[in-house]
Design brief:
The complex is a heterodimer of chains A (283) and B (262). Chain A is of the alpha/beta class. Chain A is built from nine helices and twelve strands. Chain A has an eight-stranded parallel beta barrel with strand order 1-2-3-4-7-8-9-12, surrounded by four helices. In chain B, strands 2-3-4 form a three-stranded antiparallel β-sheet. The chains are: A alpha/beta (283), B mainly alpha (262).
Amino acid sequence: MRPTAGIGFKAEHFDEAASCPASGLWFEAHAENYMVEGGPRLAMLEALRAVRPLSLHGVGLSLAADADPDMRHLARLKTLVDRFEPFVVSEHLAWSNWRGVYNPGLLPFPRTRAALDRIVANVMRVQDELSRAILMENPALYMPLDGDDLTETEFLCELVRRSGCGLLIDVNNVYVSANNLGYCANVYLDAIPGAAIGEIHLAGHSADPEYGESLLIDTHDAPICEAVWELYEGLIARVGPKPTLIERDDNIPGFAELRRERDRAHALLTSISSRECREAVHV
Amino acid sequence: MSDLAIFQDRFSRGLHENGDLTLSGDAETLRIGLSIHRNTIYKALIDALRANYPTVERLVGDEWFLASAHAFLEGNLPQEPSLNAFGAAYPDFLRTLPAAADMPYLPGVARIDRFWSESHIAADADVLSPEALIGIPFDSLFDLKLRLHPSVRLGWFGEPAPSIWKLNRPPSSATEQVDLDWAAEGALIARPHGEVIMKVLDAPSFAFLEKCSAGATLGQAATSVLDIDPSAGLMTRIAELIALGAFMSFVPTHADQRGDDQ
């Protein structure tokens, strides 16, 4: 499938989403929202899946916790994967469950060798249960932690090499983390091998109300900023077109506004594709 | 214990006990970073509670709701890595909340909000059609058992919480003064055809459904109706509850009886 651009699915957009004529449009759903026995929510996703490809994005497996994945949660994810046959299944390089408490967030950890061993094992456990590779998403970071053995890109590359997973590169997270921790987003992106990237996320962020632009928060409540679009263009120019998602989870606008951002990503992907074709012909 | 586990213990304590992170590094940077994570987590929890209790929020207003949510979260962090069913204990919590003491109907309204959420995500099933019972001999009709639809939730309330709920559940925006008959009421919440419905019940209809729910035969359930009100219009009531979609099937109790457990 030629990589195209999609939109994070929101129930309030269902009618426009299901009838949208855009070529190559796909949708991503948060897996946890559909871990229910029945009802209109599942029926809606089923109807959407009947007309569009779907990606399932998990937030609850807590793969960076020093604990085995919750097997009941994994079984619920497998039920969804079997039912909806998503073209991508993804999770986060973060933890949220710890000692019986679920923290609905994506929490950081020191990137030690021991943490890598644990996360590799957890990712492989998930992939075994689902009988497929998953993509792991880079986090948005708000503070440096002491004790890192590896940089984030080294950590991700090792995770890919050892577990066989792919990467979901969230360009906004790269931008936010680079801003907050003081490194170069371009250097970060250049260190990610293109072959490992299975999907790209684009989202908006907000400046911290107290600390302003020096502390950006990955809020998914605003349009994608121009700096993130620039990073995205540079990334796909280097690695080629990849399925790209417009993510918006708060302050959700009408479908048409998300569609405009999606069409912009789609146009960039298409221009990269045609350039690649022309270059292939010339060689 | 591993370094990662020690880190996660300390981070969790910092998140929920409002403490600082007992980690090496610049204390101020860690405090700010931790507060972003704490804000994100508590915003998600409160949004989830708000989504599950919209009628309570409408009745008490945003500020009161937020205060009650923060107090509730102190002892009720989620255990499941999904927030679809989060806040099951909130109606009981309201019962113990001093600030809610002058709103005795509020826990009941919360319980109906809760029933709505449960019904919305309950298992799918066909509903029993009114025609399904046609042709069953009258003398065996009362031996069969009606099985409630999996989306059905039933409650009995000392105050008219169901009527209050009906007037205030968003997107309803009733603002006119309504004279309520301040009496006990029942509620039937169900999702027979995709949409969740709520029907205010009187004592006989509530007793009937509760008996059915407990596995009684139609005859036993009917007796409980007539015990409350001998002139209750039994057949009309049963027909109305079937038409609402409260049942998914019936179980014949005699082997010689016509009609499958459909």
